[in-house]
């Protein structure tokens, strides 16, 4: 199905409103389904030409519930409700209804879009992790631990260097 500009939609609707052609003839000529043309006509009858002007909006939870309640109370179809409330697509209303039936009112709430913001981690000093006083037992134990880690690192580095030298001498012999 081709995308129609606002002007195209208005011209199609006006052809029907002026009484020159039948709705199914217009739909066939425009290569669009009869239900879509019918929806455009309903929109025009309810809202006028302004209904076809593009507007990007997000609907509040209260608005969605008002539309669904109106449909339940009056027995209105999604096409008519879309025309009455100037909603871009009746399919959007059907999605709201199915979400509401499956997940309740919480499913209709707007969800944040996009990537979540990165949180900056703040460094907090816990009372348990206070810096030990120099010369205390804790400070000396910490220093011993650091020296042992450094010693282990240097041993592994030395072993790696010796292994690399052996490999180089073997490759030179061949």
TrEMBL record:
UniProtKB keywords: Coiled coil
Record-annotated Insertion element IS150 protein InsJ-like helix-turn-helix domain positions: 9-54, 63-116
InterPro entries linked to this entry: Homeodomain-like_sf, InsJ-like_HTH, IS150/IS1296_orfA-like, Trp_repressor/repl_initiator, WH-like_DNA-bd_sf
Pfam families, A to Z: HTH_28
Keyword Coiled coil tagged: yes
Name recorded for this polypeptide: IS3 family transposase ISBce19
Family, per entry: Belongs to the IS150/IS1296 orfA family.
Superkingdom of origin: Bacteria
Coiled-coil ranges from the UniProt annotation: 137-166
Keyword match Mitochondrion: no
């Amino acid at each position: 199905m081709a995308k129609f500009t606002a002007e195209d939609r208005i011209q199609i609707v006006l052809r029907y409103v002026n009484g020159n052609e039948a709705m199914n003839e217009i739909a066939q000529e425009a290569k669009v389904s009869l239900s879509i043309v019918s929806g455009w006509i309903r929109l025009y009858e309810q809202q006028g030409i302004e209904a076809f002007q593009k507007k990007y909006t997000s609907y509040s939870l209260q608005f969605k519930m008002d539309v669904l309640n109106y449909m339940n109370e009056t027995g209105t179809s999604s096409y008519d409700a879309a025309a009455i409330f100037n909603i871009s697509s009746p399919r959007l209303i059907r999605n709201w209804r199915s979400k509401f039936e499956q997940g309740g009112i919480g499913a209709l709430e707007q969800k944040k879009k996009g990537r979540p913001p990165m949180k900056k981690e703040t460094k907090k000093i816990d009372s348990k992790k206070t810096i030990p006083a120099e010369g205390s037992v804790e400070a000396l134990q910490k220093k011993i631990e650091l020296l042992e880690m450094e010693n282990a690192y240097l041993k592994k580095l030395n072993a790696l260097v010796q292994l690399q030298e052996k490999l180089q001498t073997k490759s030179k012999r061949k």
